[in-house]
Amino acid sequence: MFSLSQSVGYGVLALAHMDPEGETLALAADIAAAANIPKPYLAKILAKLQAAGIIEGKRGQNGGLRLLRKAHEISVFDLADAIDGPSWRCRCLLGLPGCSDDHPCPVHGFWGQARDEIEKTLRAMTLDKVRAFTDAGWKMRNPAD
User: Fold this and answer.
1) Helix (H, G, I), strand (E, B) or coil at 66
2) Which SS3 state, helix, strand or coil, does residue 119 take?
3) Which of these, 142, 143, 141, 139, lies nearest to 17 by C-alpha position?
4) In Å, how far are 53, 71, 72, 127, 135 from 132, measured between CA atoms?
5) Which of 106, 140, 131, 144 is nearest to 4 (CA)?
6) Which whole-number Å values give the CA distances from 39 to 14, 36, 45, in the listed order?
7) Residue 67 burial class via C-beta count within 10 angstroms: exposed 0-12, middle 13-18, buried 19 and up
8) Exposed (0-12), middle (13-18) or buried (19+): which is 46, by Cβ within 10 Å?
9) pTM for this one?
10) pLDDT along the chain (145 residues), means of 10
């Protein structure tokens, strides 16, 4: 069934380990360790989030990363768009090339309605809610563990 990419999951988890007010800088290495994300993989995700204007990085001795908006203003939808691009929203559920409103697959109508509900839920799911979930003891496990 439909799911967001592992990159989006890692991005959500990584940002949940940052200061929700965006005032304190965090080191990428500390985020990677806290979220159990491979550093090279995290670096690629963080670059996409910087390009999208969700986080900023400061170089140098007192450098690090911070959120550019407060955690309650950043949705999982925002992160999915920043990391995977808007195409994640339009994929055919059956994975059929050429599926569109003009040439619908057998589940096209259903999937369009379901996508609308998924989008609504992801827009309402903000980083502060994810942070509360991770603070309650949930951690994403590395598949290699």
Assistant:
1) strand
2) helix
3) 139
4) 23, 11, 11, 9, 5
5) 140
6) 11, 9, 10
7) buried
8) buried
9) 0.82
10) 84 92 93 93 96 94 93 95 86 86 92 90 93 60 43
